[in-house]
From TrEMBL, chain A:
Keywords: Membrane, Transmembrane, Transmembrane helix. It comes from the Bacteria. The chain crosses the membrane at residues 65-86. This is DUF5667 domain-containing protein.
UniProtKB/TrEMBL annotation, chain B:
Pfam families: Sigma70_r2, Sigma70_r4. This is ECF subfamily RNA polymerase sigma-24 subunit. CDD domains: Sigma70_r4. InterPro entries: RNA_pol_sigma-70-like (IPR039425), RNA_pol_sigma-70_dom (IPR014284), RNA_pol_sigma70_r2 (IPR007627), RNA_pol_sigma70_r4 (IPR007630), RNA_pol_sigma_r2 (IPR013325), RNA_pol_sigma_r3/r4-like (IPR013324), WH-like_DNA-bd_sf (IPR036388). GO terms for molecular function: DNA binding; sigma factor activity. One of its GO terms (biological process) is DNA-templated transcription initiation. Belongs to the sigma-70 factor family. ECF subfamily. It comes from Candidatus Wolfebacteria bacterium GW2011_GWB1_41_12. Keywords: DNA-binding, Sigma factor, Transcription, Transcription regulation. Residues 23-90, 123-172 form the RNA polymerase sigma-70 region domain.
C-alpha cells in the first residue's frame, strides 16, 4: 500500500496556484520596488506603508472625488506619522507589531490595486474612504506617540492602535470590493 | 543551490525586482502547494503565499548564504505563517467543500483518481504539522532526506523516522482509525 500511497502523494504535485492570482500577487509584490522610497529592509518598511497611503490619496485626488484640501491634509498628516509607528525592537510586542505591519502593507496594496482597477467611484464612497483613511492614519499617529514611551503599558496601547488601524483598512477593503 | 540562483539572490538583495521576480516564478508554486496542502483552503493559501513572498522581498537582505538553500528560507517563512494562521484565526477547515477540479491541473485524471487525491489531501490535514511537512517535502516535492533535514533543522535519522510514522498515520486515517 505504501507504493500506492506514495504514488498518489506524488500526484499532488499537480496542485498549482491560479494564474490570475499569481500574476496579481507577483505584480503587487514587485511593484513595491517601483515605489522610490522602498528599500527592502526593516527600517524602511514604514516608508512603503506611507507611500501606499499617498498613492491611494493621490488616486482619490486624481479622480476628483475628494476635496483637494482634504487630500493635502491627509498627505501632511501621514508625513507627520514619519516612519516609526511601531514599538522599538527588543520587546515581545515587536513580532506581533511586525506581523500587523505586514498585514497593513498587504491591505494597502490591495486597496491601491482595487482603486487602480476602478473606472468610477461614487462620491459618497470616496468621502467614506477618505474618512476611514484619516481614521487609520490618526491611529497610526497615536501609536507612534505611544511607542516613544518606555512604559510597557503605552507600548501595549500602541499595538492596540495599530490593530485598530488594521481593522479600519479591512473596512476600506470591504467598502471598495463591494 | 541551483546554477545562477546565487547570482539572482545577490541581485535581489541589491534591490533588483526582476531578479526577485524570477525567484518568485520558480518558488511560488512550491510554496503555494506546501501551504495549500497543509491548510486545505484555496483563498487562505493564496493569502498566506502572498504574505510569504512579501515578507521574503521585504527581508531579503537578511538572507545569508550559510549552506541553506533559498527554498529552505522560504519554507521556514511559510511554516511560521501557517503556525500564525492557526494560532490567530482558529479556522476549522471544511476540506470537503474544496473544489478539487480548480486545484488540480487538468491532466486527464479519472473521477476515481480525483476522489483518491481528495481523500489523501483531507487525511494529510489531520497529521501532525511536522509529519505534513515531511510528507510534502519528501514525496510531493521529492526532496532528499538530507534537504528536508536541513529545512526542518533535524537529523536525517529523525526525518526518516517521522516519514515512517507519517505514512503509517496517513494509512490509519484513510482506514478510519486514529493516529499514534
Amino acid at each position: 500500500m505504501d507504493k500506492e500511497l506514495i504514488k498518489i502523494l506524488k500526484s499532488l504535485k499537480t496542485v498549482q496556484p491560479g494564474q490570475d492570482y499569481s500574476n496579481r500577487s507577483r505584480h503587487l509584490i514587485l511593484s513595491l520596488k517601483n515605489d522610490e522610497s522602498f528599500v527592502p529592509n526593516f527600517n524602511n518598511d514604514k516608508k512603503s506603508v506611507y507611500a501606499d497611503y499617498a498613492n491611494i490619496l493621490d488616486w482619490l485626488s486624481f479622480h476628483k472625488v475628494a476635496a483637494t484640501v482634504g487630500v493635502v491634509g491627509a498627505f501632511v498628516l501621514i508625513i507627520l506619522l514619519t516612519i516609526s509607528y511601531l514599538p522599538g525592537r527588543g520587546n515581545g510586542l515587536v513580532a506581533e507589531a511586525d506581523e500587523i505591519n505586514s498585514s497593513i502593507q498587504i491591505k494597502l496594496d490591495e486597496i491601491e490595486y482595487y482603486l487602480n482597477n476602478q473606472q468610477t467611484i461614487a462620491s459618497s464612497t470616496a468621502d467614506q474612504l477618505q474618512t476611514l483613511l484619516f481614521e487609520s492614519a490618526k491611529n497610526l499617529e497615536e501609536a507612534k506617540a505611544l511607542s516613544a514611551s518606555s512604559n510597557p503599558d503605552d507600548l501595549s496601547k500602541a499595538l492596540e492602535k495599530i490593530k485598530t488601524a488594521q481593522e479600519t483598512l479591512l473596512q476600506i477593503n470591504s467598502l471598495i470590493s463591494q | 543551490m541551483l546554477d545562477g540562483e546565487e547570482k539572482l539572490i545577490r541581485e535581489a538583495i541589491a534591490g533588483e525586482a526582476s531578479a526577485f521576480g524570477l525567484l518568485y516564478d520558480k518558488y511560488q508554486p512550491v510554496i503555494y502547494r506546501f501551504i495549500y496542502i497543509k491548510i486545505g483552503h484555496r483563498e487562505e493559501a493564496e493569502d498566506l503565499t502572498h504574505q510569504v513572498f512579501l515578507r521574503a522581498w521585504e527581508n531579503i537582505y537578511t538572507y545569508e548564504f550559510r549552506g541553506f538553500s533559498f527554498s529552505s528560507w522560504l519554507y521556514s517563512i511559510a511554516r511560521n505563517k501557517v503556525i500564525d494562521h492557526y494560532r490567530t484565526r482558529k479556522i476549522t477547515i471544511d476540506i470537503e467543500s474544496i473544489q478539487i477540479s480548480e486545484e488540480i491541473k487538468p491532466n486527464e485524471k479519472t473521477i476515481d483518481e480525483k476522489l483518491e487525491i481528495k481523500k489523501i489531501k483531507n487525511a494529510i490535514t489531520k497529521l501532525r504539522p511536522v509529519e505534513q511537512d515531511v510528507l510534502i517535502m519528501r514525496f510531493i516535492e521529492e526532496l532528499s532526506p538530507k534537504e528536508v533535514a536541513g529545512i526542518l533543522k533535524k537529523s536525517e535519522g529523525s526525518i526518516r523516522l517521522i516519514q515512517h510514522k507519517a505514512l503509517k498515520n496517513l494509512k490509519k486515517i484513510l482506514n478510519g482509525q486514529g493516529t499514534d
